[in-house]
Design a protein that fits this description.
Elements: E1 4-7, H1 17-23, E2 30-35, H2 47-56, E3 61-66, H3 70-79, E4 82-88, H4 95-103, E5 108-113, E6 131-135, H5 152-163, E7 169-173, H6 181-187, E8 191-194, H7 196-199, H8 204-215
Parallel strand pairs: 1-8, 2-3, 3-4, 4-5, 5-6, 6-7, 7-8
Helix pairs in contact: 3-4
Bound molecules: ribulose-5-phosphate.
């Protein structure tokens, strides 16, 4: 299985975002964290910036919405060019409809769960989404410690997806490094978000290559 790497621009220099995303052009996706200071206690970027990033990025965008009311917003992010659009199960009024709205745009739909949310919460959605994101930190900030106690959720999701006859991607986000990536992959992850472990290095291409080797 080839592992997908998605550097999180939360740890990039927002003053030189265009050159930052070109420095991670060897990645499979660029992970874009949208935060609204309601669903999480932090505020980042919104729709116009994501739209422009989608136009200039050499790599497809994996947009992670950490916002309230994804029912209203998620499809708009998909429409402006998010190749993959992730919303939080905990934030959605109608999680099934949000997935359908995203997919109706042609984008990949993904649902995320916070550390306190059990994998079982999204079992009913597995045939309606293309990916589940298991948070391995509390969403809101980069540079936090990896919560390895979240890893059993990956096996549970993989089994539930197989039982439902569907094949989904499983993404992890938070504290992913060359040390923790092998654990996440062994537990069933195939898509790794990495913020500080990529943008914390001067040579971003080398950091991505090192993650790929570690995740093999
Ligand atoms: O969603 C996020 C935080 O809510 C970030 O994508 C994540 O924390 C990445 O940062 P790091 O790899 O440094 O943990």
């Amino acid at each position: 299985m080839s592992i997908r790497i998605a550097p999180s621009i939360l740890s990039a220099d927002f003053g030189r975002l265009e050159s930052e995303i070109f420095e991670v052009a060897s990645a499979d996706f660029i992970h874009v964290d949208v935060m609204d200071n309601h669903f999480v206690p932090n505020l980042t970027i919104g729709l116009p910036v994501v739209e422009r990033l989608a136009q200039i990025s050499p790599v497809p965008l994996d947009v992670h919405l950490m916002i309230a009311d994804p029912d209203r917003w998620a499809a708009k992010y998909a429409e402006v060019g998010a190749a993959s659009c992730t919303y939080h199960f905990e934030a959605a009024n109608n999680p099934l409809q949000v997935a359908r709205d995203i997919r109706s745009t042609g984008s990949r739909a993904a649902v995320a769960i916070k550390p306190g949310t059990p994998a079982e919460a999204v079992f009913d959605l597995l045939t309606e989404v293309d990916m589940v994101l298991v948070m391995t930190v509390e969403p809101g900030f980069g540079g936090q410690e990896f919560m390895r106690e979240m890893l059993p959720k990956l096996g549970a999701l993989r089994k539930a997806a197989a039982d439902a006859g569907t094949d989904i991607w499983l993404e992890v986000d938070g504290g992913i490094s060359v040390e923790t990536a092998p654990e996440a992959v062994a537990a069933g992850a195939d898509t790794l978000v990495a913020g500080s472990s990529v943008f914390g290095h001067l040579d971003r291409a080398a950091a991505i290559a090192n993650l790929r080797v570690a995740a093999r």
